[in-house]
Amino acid sequence: MVITRALMEGEVDDDGRAKRTGNSLTATTHIITVVIGAGVLALAYAMAQLGWIAGIATMIAFAVISTFTYNLVADCYRFPDPITGKRNYTYMQAVKAYLGGTMYVFCGLVQYTKLAGITVGYTITSATSLVAIKKAICFHKEGHQAYCKFSNNPFMIGFGTLQIFLSQIPNFHELTWLSTIAAITSFGYAFIASGLSLSVVISGKGQPTSITGTRIGPELSAEDKVWRVFSSLGNIALAANYSTVIFDIMDTLKSDPPENKQMKKANVMGVTAMTILFLLCSGFGYAAFGDHTPGNILTGFYEPFWLVALGNTFVVIHMVGAYQVMAQPFYRIVEMGANMVWPESDFINKEYPTKLGNIRFNFNLFRLIWRTIFVILSTILAMAMPFFNEILSLLGAIGFWPLVVFFPIQMHIRQRQIKKRTLKWCMLQLLSFMCFIVTVTAVVGSVHGISQDLHKYKVFTYRQ
Questions:
Q1: How many other CB atoms are there within 10 angstroms of residue 318's CB atom?
Q2: What are phi and psi of 354, to 5 degrees?
Q3: Using CA atoms, how far apart are residues 43 and 46, in angstroms rounded to an integer?
């Protein structure tokens, strides 16, 4: 009765939740904020491997495909009707509603595997940036001919130790100020990297480039060139992916005009802005460094050292919060599963009210031990394979086909009841198959790159 009265007075939406006020512009802002992340730093390297023609074409192709499939997802926010149906609050909920329990489980495996893997990638990214800061200071003090190579391990251990403490804070990833800091720092390091690259080009110190990318020669065989191209596809796929949060964004939109129409407009504006920024970052980076474009564009600069240090500091600050944004949902699903299997266990379920100074919080033994073990394992994996480009490429490849292409297309087919072997069904399945081939290619290229690096460097002894 209370909900009905509130609904009539316009205080709540049709699902009884607080009235949503978002629009296509706020959704566009969310999209841009989400995609400007660590993956942007690897795009210049991807452009260098692909060259101007293939690099630009690939980024535009990913943008077009992403816009198309995200628009299909927009129609699946509600079930079964895209305008009047029941809301789906998460990606997995939508998959379950349209495709059933088996696909729901498959979607969960992909989504949570990617979330867990990204924590490894963020640990590597943070350590890479911290070492870059130390190198910039070293070169500034000792000169550019000095030996300034440092191990990533101490920085990864420090980052992991911090994450152990942050992981004990329930719902840390939902703190409002965290999103604000993430947005500011991510735009900060993206623009610093682009600005530094542009300054090199304007000063006339940019390196030769090619329409076909890095040149085959004594330093690069034709076979290695192909593997690098394959791996670069994963880097681009990671940067363009916001599938894990698209339902969270849609759940902020008001229902008039319909959410799907607003989201489709936001997808077009967001992906367009994203693509322009990606092309600028990757293009300026490649023009500055040519064949020697580093995997993380910010690690290629040493002067002005204070600006390089600031850009890398922004990266570290962003990664500290972003780690928890990815890890907390993974923690929660494991803890929910443990609660369902052992509902009577005090070790798993009992909360102990604790006071530390003026701070009061609940302490749980299972949460403490499980989350600590997870952070330690992710840190050890990062220390064993601290290869920025290859790890990010693998993560991008794993998530691209299933989450960006396969599930949206299958949900659209089920929603619109498209009959098998019709022209539209065949075209949609062809698109899905082509993207599957891209994903497999990127996975193979990434795994090969990791394998090559492991043969080149002893485990835990990599120095940057």
A1: 26
A2: -130, 150
A3: 5
Which tokens sit at 83?
A: 């305008």
Separation between Cα atoms, residue 460 and residue 464, nearest integer Å: 12
Please give the Cα distance from 123 to 323 (Å, whole number): 8
Q: Which helix (H) or strand (E) holds 91?
A: helix 91-99
pLDDT band at 79 (very low <50, low <70, confident <90, very high): very high
CB of 181 closer than 8 Å to CB of 272: no
Contacts of 252 (CB under 8 A, 6+ apart): 20, 21, 22, 26, 27, 30
- CA-CA distances (angstroms) from residue 143 to 95, 139, 147, 286? 56, 5, 9, 25
Q: How far is CA 167 from CA 119, 163, 177, 365, in A?
A: 12, 6, 17, 13
Match 């920025």 to its residue by tokens: 388
The CATH number corresponding to 17-456 among 1.10.8, 1.10.4160, 3.30.1380, 3.40.50 equals 1.10.4160
Q: Select from 317, 302, 322 the least CA-distant residue to 132.
A: 302
pTM (2 d.p.): 0.89
pLDDT for res 289? 95
| Cα separation values, 314 from 7, 34, 192, 218, 311, Å | 43, 15, 10, 37, 5
| Token pair recorded at residue 381 | 């994996």
Tokens 């929910």 sit on residue: 336
What is the number of other CB atoms lying within 10 angstroms of the CB of residue 119?
Answer: 27
Question: Looking at residue 299, what DSSP letter applies?
Answer: G
Q: d(Cα 77, Cα 90) in Å, to the nearest integer?
A: 8
- At 457 the pLDDT is 77
State whether residue 104 is helix, strand or coil: helix
Q: Is the pLDDT of residue 2 over 50?
A: no
Contact assessment for residue 318 and residue 186, using Cβ atoms and an 8 Å cutoff: yes
Residue ranges per structural domain of the chain: 17-456
Q: Where are the beta strands (DSSP E) in 54-174?
A: 78-79, 86-87
pLDDT in tens, 362-403: 788 999 999 999 999 999 999 988 888 888 899 999 999 999
What is the band of 228 on the pLDDT scale with cuts at 50, 70, 90? very high
pLDDT by residue (tens digit) across 284-338?
Answer: 999 999 999 998 899 888 888 899 999 999 999 989 888 888 888 889 889 989 9
Q: Where are the beta strands (DSSP E) in 137-282?
A: none
pLDDT tens digit sequence for 40-75: 889 999 999 999 999 999 999 999 999 999 999 999
Round to whole Å and give the CA distance between 89 and 248.
Answer: 7
Distance CA(94)–CA(78), nearest Å, equals 8
